Amino acid sequence: MGSDIKYLKAEASHTPEMHSLLMEHGPNEWNYLPEEGVKAEMEDVASGRAIAVLAKAEEKIVGFAVAYPGLIRFPAIVESRKDAEVCGYIGDVVVHSDFAGKGIGSKLLNEAKSLLREENIQEIHIDCHEENAASRGMMRKAGFRQLALFDDPDRRFAGSRKTWLGRYTD
Ligand SMILES: CC(C)(COP(=O)(O)OP(=O)(O)OC[C@H]1O[C@@H](n2cnc3c(N)ncnc32)[C@H](O)[C@@H]1OP(=O)(O)O)[C@@H](O)C(=O)NCCC(=O)NCCS
To answer: Domains of the chain by range and CATH?
Structure first.
């Protein structure tokens, strides 16, 4: 499945196409995608602060995942036993709707895990709306397990308004 898909590390020149993909296929009732936040994330990829993995079909970007080495995104929630420099956070993940459900999202997470491992990251966090079933399925398939479930009314506007926080460690 998804065998004609190539996975590669993003470069700054990819960020305009990534931005368009995210704004077209990312929004749903479960996702928090403020324009300013998306812009900042793309700038982080362009500057190298964040690393991104692309899924390409032919020459078209059909999915990506953005990963931050050296970041604990929810320090108030995560009582990490590890220092921030060995922790990483995976931000936005999106797959073009024509390509969803083929294992591309979970493969992107696995590729992001490998890139973070190269940066000596030992523990990775990721989050989504508790009720985002596709996202939860993708995260489960990539080996993330629940670390916390918390009320998040400033970022979640539908359903339970809770954020599911997952963790992966080798
Ligand atoms: C979330 C997203 C990236 C998943 O990408 P994907 O390529 O479809 O993910 P995968 O195919 O690797 O895995 C999805 C898993 O969830 C399951 N799943 C998908 N939709 C589901 C649903 N509505 N209910 C229950 N399970 C679902 C799939 O069956 C699959 O698991 P399985 O292979 O064990 O059956 C994609 O749906 C997307 O871009 N959504 C919009 C943006 C978004 O919500 N991003 C995540 C925010 S954190």
So the answer is: 5-169 (3.40.630.30)
